[in-house]
Amino acid sequence: MKHVECINYINLDCEKGMCALSKQIVPIDGNGSDACGHFQPAPVCGNCACFADADKHGIGTCKGFEKENWTYAKCGAFCCEHYKAARG
Ligand code: SF4
Ligand code: SF4
């Protein structure tokens, strides 16, 4: 799991964000991007029970609506009425 997938991650730009708990700057990917022990899954498509069949780029299928459609794992789901936490 990565910081960017954590509910405590606050996005700053396309490379980095801030941890709301530690106030540290954390990278989206690469070195130092792995989550810490305080990780809690954020409501993103990749953490939703309706997300399936992701490819190596994290692009998968949303099965939460009447018509299936593609989505990507890091897509924010704060406003999705069909979000169902898959874990956490
Ligand atoms: S709680 Fe841990 S995993 Fe979550 S954003 Fe902060 S440092 Fe990253
Ligand atoms: S139901 Fe919503 S949160 Fe879940 S995968 Fe589909 S679009 Fe994403």
Write the layout of secondary structure elements.
Layout (H helix, E strand, L loop, with lengths): L8 E3 L4 E4 L5 E3 L23 E2 L6 E4 L6 E4 L16
The chain binds iron/sulfur cluster (2 copies).
Family: Belongs to the HPA decarboxylase small subunit family.
EC number: 4.1.1.83
Organism: Anaerotignum lactatifermentans
Question: How many whole angstroms does the radius of gyration measure?
Answer: 13 Å
Label the structural class. mainly beta
What is the overall number of helices? 0
Report how far the terminal alpha carbons are from each other.
12 Å
Element order, helices and strands? EEEEEE
Task: Tell me the β content.
Answer: 15-25%
Q: The CATH topology of the largest domain, please?
A: Ubiquitin Ligase Nedd4, Chain: W
Architecture (CATH level 2) name of the largest domain: Single Sheet
Give the overall silhouette. Answer: elongated
Largest sheet composition: 3 strands, antiparallel
* Helical percentage: under 10%
Provide the domain count: 2
Query: How many strand elements?
Result: 6
Write down the overall mean pLDDT.
Answer: 93
Bound molecules: iron/sulfur cluster
CATH class of the largest domain: Mainly Beta
Low-pLDDT windows of residues: none
Within the largest sheet, what's the order of strands?
1-2-3
EC number: 4.1.1.83
Organism: Anaerotignum lactatifermentans
Catalytic activity: 4-hydroxyphenylacetate + H(+) = 4-methylphenol + CO2; 3,4-dihydroxyphenylacetate + H(+) = 4-methylcatechol + CO2
Domain 4-hydroxyphenylacetate decarboxylase small gamma subunit C-terminal: 44-81
